Amino acid sequence: MSALSPAWFEIGLALLLAPLLNSVIARIKAAFAGRQGPPLLQPYFDLAKLLRKGAVYSSTTTWIFRAGPIVAFATTAAALLLLPNGRVAAPVAFPADFVLLAYLLALGRFFTISAALDTGSSFEGMGASREAHFAALAEPTLLLGLAALARKTGALSLSQILPTTSLLAPEVGLVAVALAVILLCENARMPFDDPTTHLELTMVHEVMVLDHGGPDFAFVQYASALKLWLWSALLTALFLPASGNAWVAGALTVAGVFAVACGVGVVESSMARLRLLRVPQLLATALALTAVALILVVR
C-alpha cells in the first residue's frame, strides 16, 4: 500500500489542480494579447457558483441528458487511475489496460453526444455530429499510438509502457507529435475548436452542453479540466525520463502537465481556428504518423 501512495497522491493532485490548467491557458493568452487575464482561482469560483444554482430540465429530455455530465466525469476520473507515476504502477494496472483507457474516454464522449441529441436541439445535434466525426479519426490514432509504444517496449500495460519509452526513438517521437495533435482535438482547443466562442455555427464541444446548467454544467466543466490533465499527463510521460523516486516523478509530471498547458496557451494565441473541412485532414495526418510508427516497430 505504501508503494501506491505516491500514485494516489498524484491522482489527488489531479482532482484538486485540474481546474487551474484553464487559468494558466487563459493567462498565457491574455499575456499575448497584452491583458492581465482572469484570476488564477477563477475556475474554482465558477464551479462553486454553478454548484449553488439549480438545474432546469426540458420536458423533451430523458434520463440520458442528466446522466451525460456525470458519466463524462466518472469515466475521466476512472481513466486517471490507469496512468502510472514514474516507475510506480498505476492504482489500476493490468495487461492491455491502454485499451480500457481508450474505451473509457469513448464512453464519456458517447454519453456527452447522447445527452446533446436527447435535447432535440438542431444546434446541439450539429455539435454532436461534428464531435462524432472528429472522434472517428482521433480514437484510432490513440489506439495505434499506444499499440506502437507497446510493441516498442514489449509491454502491454501503461505502467510498463510509459516509464520505458525514450523520446530519442523516432517511433516515440512520431507518437508524441500525434498525441499532441489529438490532445488539442479531444479538449476542444484551437485550431480544432474555440472554447471561448459564442457562435453556435462554429462551436463543437460548447454547443453540445448549451442546455446544461447549475451542478450539471459544473460536472461538465470539471470533467473537461480533468480530461485536459489526463491527456497532458499522458503526453508528459513520453517526454520525462522515468525517475526511481516516485515523489520526484510525481513532481515532474505535475510540472510537465502545467508546461503542456502553457504550450496550449501559446498555440491558441498564435493560431486561428481551422476551417471545418481542414480538421479531418489534420486528424488524418496524426493517424498516419501513428501508423508509420507502428510500421517502424513491427518491421
Strand content: under 5%
Cα distance spanning the termini? 41 Å
Q: Percent range for helical residues?
A: 55-70%
Cα-atom Rg, whole angstroms? 19 Å
Helical stretch tally: 11
Derived from helix and strand composition plus strand pairing, the structural class reads mainly alpha
Characterize the largest beta sheet: strand count, sense, and whether it forms a barrel.
Answer: none
Uncertain regions: pLDDT < 50 for 5+ in a row? none
Number of strands: 0
The tally of domains stands at: 1
The mean pLDDT is: 90
Overall morphology? globular
What is the string of SSEs from the N terminus onward? HHHHHHHHHHH
Write the layout of secondary structure elements.
Elements: H1 5-32, H2 42-52, H3 63-80, H4 97-118, H5 122-153, H6 158-161, H7 170-186, H8 205-208, H9 215-239, H10 246-270, H11 279-298
Commentary on this structure:
The protein is mainly alpha-helical and 299 residues long. It has one domain. Helix content is 69%, strand content 0%. It contains 11 helices and no strands. The longest helix has 32 residues. The N and C termini lie far apart (41 Å). The mean pLDDT is 90.
Descriptors for this entry?
globular; 299 residues; 69% helix; 11 helices; mainly alpha
What is this entry, summarized?
The protein has 299 residues and is mostly helical. The protein contains eleven helices and no strands. 46% of the residues are buried.
